[in-house]
Amino acid sequence: MAENNTPETEAELEQRFRDEFEVGGKDRQLSDEQQLEQLGTYINAHYPLPDFTPPWAGGAGDPDPADRYIAHLPDRITHSSMLMLGSGLDHSMPGVAFIGGVSVQDAPEIDAAIFLPSKPSGHWAITFHSGGWWRGSGDALEMQWRPEVAAAAELSGTTIVDLDYPLAPAHNLAQISAAVAKAVDYARDQKAASVTGWGYSSGAALAVLNASLFDALILTFPDLGSIAKLPEEIRAGVELPEPASWPKSLVQIALQDEIATRPADIDGLEQIQIREYVAHHRISTPKIAREKIQDVAEFLSSLKDDK
């Protein structure tokens, strides 16, 4: 029916039909939320999640299945995005798009890899992978986390030490933090102009736990609640410092995070920048993944003006 409640003419009816239906569908731009829904649904249907339960919560205690899933995720996101979102978009992940001339060298004395940008600024960062305190090393480290670290190093000119820190339950938080302090001392000994702590998920909790060692923090999808879930023999009585005491910080929040909750008491603090992303904890579109690393690099670059 037409808006004036008079019957549509045959020509009007045919035109409305043409407007509403096209063979092959219409070329519509999906919103970021719609793209994430399409991508997440496809990945979850074709690549079922393994058991991510830590051993102290009744899990099998074998990190390999979960780490293999994480290791394959960047390639699976790219391929799934091409299938579900179309080949006309840029589906390159940060470790492909921004790698540039970065180089890497081993630092066995601190159990780390050092990412050297092609144009170093003299500023350094120490980075901490995710993994719920008990996994995240091995293939997951090399194939998922370190490509993003390399991209941020190259984009920002920051020399980044990615620490393969000791894991629970073989080590408690005091022992893990001792490895962090050793890595920070290493960077300071290299005459670093500043040292930033950057962690993802539980790695962000590790950065906050050692906030007093750093000139700045970057917390990517921080799972600060992961510390309270640890058994006391692993937690060793430690408590996270309040956000008001943190140094200059960038907090990255996934709006569709199914793992971590938004850290309390971060809003309204002058030294804390907050960026929000249409993303799940582990899955985002390549576009959002690139934005996340570009924001990390921009924050790292801004530290040059603070010294």
Characterise this structure.
This protein is of the alpha/beta class. It has a domain at 94-306: 3-Layer(aba) Sandwich (Rossmann fold), CATH 3.40.50. Helix content is 38%, strand content 14%. It has an eight-stranded mixed beta sheet, sandwiched between helices. Helix 7 links the parallel strand 5 (195-200) and strand 6. The chain is globular and about 80 Å long. The termini are far apart.
Chain-wise SSE layout:
Elements: H1 10-20, H2 32-46, H3 64-85, H4 94-97, E1 103-107, E2 112-116, E3 124-128, H5 139-156, E4 159-163, H6 173-189, E5 195-200, H7 202-209, E6 216-220, H8 232-235, E7 248-254, E8 272-277, H9 286-302
Helix pairs in contact: 2-3, 3-5, 5-9
Structural shape: globular
The appropriate CATH architecture of the domain at 94-306 is 3-Layer(aba) Sandwich
What is the CATH third-level topology name of the domain at 94-306? Answer: Rossmann fold
Helix-residue proportion: 25-40%
What is the CATH class name of the domain at 94-306? Alpha Beta
Biggest sheet: strands side by side, in what order? 1-2-4-3-5-6-7-8
Kindly provide the radius of gyration, computed on alpha-carbon positions and rounded to a whole number of angstroms: 23 Å
Order of helices and strands: HHHHEEEHEHEHEHEEH
| Main sheet makeup | 8 strands, mixed
Average pLDDT level: 92
- State the end-to-end CA separation: 68 Å
What is the count of helical runs?
Answer: 9
β-sheet strand percentage? 5-15%
